[in-house]
Each structure stands twice: as C-alpha cells, then as structure tokens.
Automatic annotation (TrEMBL):
Source superkingdom: Bacteria
InterPro entries (UniProt xref): Lysozyme-like_dom_sf (IPR023346), Transglycosylase_SLT_dom_1 (IPR008258)
Domain Transglycosylase SLT: 23-123
Protein name in UniProt: Lytic transglycosylase
Family under the similarity heading: Belongs to the virb1 family.
Length: 222
C-alpha cells in the first residue's frame, strides 16, 4: 500500500483536525488509501469542523454532498448521521479511492472538489476548472508537501495562488503498486437539476471488506 512503502508526507493540521487521527488511520486501512490523503483533504475541506456545511450543501469533515453521502452510507452500512466523524471520514476515504482509480494522481482531487461530471467536461471540452477547484488542489498538494502557508484554515477561508498543477505528478513516486486492489464501483453523476444520472465507471469492491456494490450519486460543489 502507498502508506506502507515508506512515503514520508508531512500534513500540517489544526489541533481540532488532529483529534481525528485514529479515525483517519482506520479509514485508511479499510479503504486502502494513504492516511495522508484523508488528513489533507479533511483539513482543506473543513479544517476539522465536523458540523461544517458548505453553501452548496456539502456536509461534515470530508464535505460530502447529500446524494453522495446517501449512497456511500448504504454501500458501507453507515449510520444515519452524515456529521458523525467516523462515518463521514470513512465515506470520504471510500470516495477518494473511487476517484483515484478513475482519474489517477492528476485528477482525483479536482474531481473530488468539482465533481466527476464537471471534471469530465473539463477533459472533454477544455472548459477551465473553477478557480475554487484549482485553489483546492493546490491547498491539498501544499499540505501533502508540508508547506501549507495557512495550515490551520480550510480552503473556503483561504486565498491560494493558482499553479499549473495538471502537468505535475502529485507524488514523488509512482502511484501504482501490485499489492493494491483498486476498487471499482458504479458511480453516477447527477446533472444540475438532479433529474438525470450518468455512469462514470462500473465494477465492484471485491478487494475491500464490508463493502457491497452500489451506485454513488454525485452532485458535488461546482
């Protein structure tokens, strides 16, 4: 696994966010993703505020949209409260892994922020990603490098410099590893009205414990 290969990534965090270390470790082991990813996304999304709600309705520590939370909750047999720290982190970790399988290092963070549909549109048409998304990706990358200028704040409260991150590798080593069984799930994308869905990719979570196949409907922030 990536976090078992000696990768050293410093992720500055607020004192509030650090209280979730054990939950992050559990989610990383269960979803087989590096805990540093989860920690950096959590800090950038919510700055450790488990009751955080975005202007567009994203909820909790990992800022999951309601439709995404609903399907991940059913998939992972989670509780009913989207703000529960354990369940929100676990769902967010599962979603990060899905998106990384789909988009790889270059795109999974942008897809997490803007939504898979919006990122697919960017790839297909060249329509620029929102400035919010570019800032978000740079904020997470900065935390993974350990040089976040305002590590105690979420990106919603921080103005980050734009960088051409698309052409650069997110990590200093290749992301593929033969010991990783990457999950596949039927990910569905809602359009702006919420009336249509589009399949992004299909498959199953054969390599993960206590996970059954289910569509994930995504109506992300942008």
């Amino acid at each position: 696994m990536l976090f078992a290969m000696g990768w050293m990534v410093c992720v500055p965090m607020s004192a509030q966010a650090k209280t979730y270390d054990l939950l992050i470790t559990e989610a990383a082991a269960r979803m087989q993703v590096p805990p540093e990813w989860i920690a950096a996304v959590l800090q950038s999304e919510s700055a450790g505020d488990m009751k955080a709600v975005s202007a567009k309705g994203a909820m909790g520590l990992m800022q999951l949209m309601p439709a995404t939370w609903t399907d991940l909750r059913r998939m992972l047999a989670l509780g009913a409260d989207p703000f529960d720290a354990h369940d929100n982190i676990l769902a967010g970790a599962a979603y990060l892994r899905m998106l990384h399988e789909r988009y790889g290092d270059a795109g999974f963070l942008a897809a997490y922020n803007a939504g898979p549909g919006r990122y697919d549109e960017h790839l297909a048409t060249g329509r620029p990603l929102p400035q919010e998304t570019l800032a978000y990706v740079e904020a997470v990358r900065a935390r993974l490098r350990g040089d976040s200028p305002l590590a105690g704040q979420g990106t919603s409260r921080t103005v980050w410099p734009r960088r051409e991150w698309q052409a650069a590798s997110l990590f200093i080593a290749p992301s593929d590893h033969p010991d990783i069984i990457m999950p596949r799930a039927e990910i569905m994308q809602r359009n702006g009205s919420g009336n249509a869905v589009r399949t992004l990719f299909v498959g199953h979570f054969s390599g993960l414990p206590n996970v059954s196949p289910l569509s994930v409907q995504e109506g992300r922030k942008s």
